[in-house]
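Protocol step 6 of 9: fold each sequence in the batch and record its structure tokens directly after the sequence line. For illustration, a two-sequence batch is reproduced in full.

Sequence one:
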Amino acid sequence: MTTSSEPITGEGPSRTPPKSGAITVEQKGFTEPKAFSAAEVAAKTQAPPAIETARPTLLPPTVAGAQTIAADAVTATWRSNQTVTATWSISEPRNAWMHVKDLGWRKLYNGRDWAFTALVTLAAQARQTQRPITFREEADGMVYEIYLW
């Protein structure tokens, strides 16, 4: 191993994270992604080239449109046949979002590590494969379940 007595030069990283769209908050976990313009959404929703891969042999259950279920003053909304156009996260504990075509940004449930990891994985897979998803959104605005076929 060789060492050099010359001082290390350089200014370090030359890029800083974007500041637009981020909200400065005292508590971590509340930063939100910036809104996409119509041109950005159009560019991001172009279908990727088809890749021949193994596919599931079962079909998803048929759900006609979004259904609203109310129970004990808590409202859940099921949204079916939706497309994830982007995912976003930041270096804060359990803070990730998915962008759903024609609906906008939706925050993923962050109450438990295992649930958060599963939801982020499903949202990223849906984004990568452009497969439609069905998801449940609660009154607090977070996504608690994702079904990807």
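Sequence two, same batch, same settings:
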Amino acid sequence: MRWMTGALLMMGAMPAGAAEATGQFNVQLTPLPAAPGGIGQYRLDKQFSGDLVASSGGLMLSGGDPAKGAAGYVAMELVTGRLAGRSGGFALQHSGTMSGDGQHLQIVIVPGSGTGALASISGTMTIRISGKDHFYTMRYELPAAP
């Protein structure tokens, strides 16, 4: 399923202490048995490169008719790896829709989900798709390293 080339509308200037990470990722979607009501379910596996060197696994649910340009999805994935020289993990929560009015995608770092040296991380991520290539930009905040 191909999703979202847009950006988070609420992202503007970065607050003091914020940082930005960019790079590419590969994604594999594995279909799972449909949920009640015909909701599509997929296993989500990603490999990130660039400023975030990590892998992730998660679950995606989708509904609607993407072939007609009207659909939505939600996903939760757990990212584990290295960011800014720190090892740990965090969860990403996705919410996306597409309709005749366009596409909207919001991806946030789940508050309280940070582990290891990435504990207390907060922020957002945007995704850009060009052909078969996937790119990310993550704006985040981390407390100073101990």
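Proceed to step 7 once all outputs are recorded. Observation for sequence two: The radius of gyration is 15 Å.
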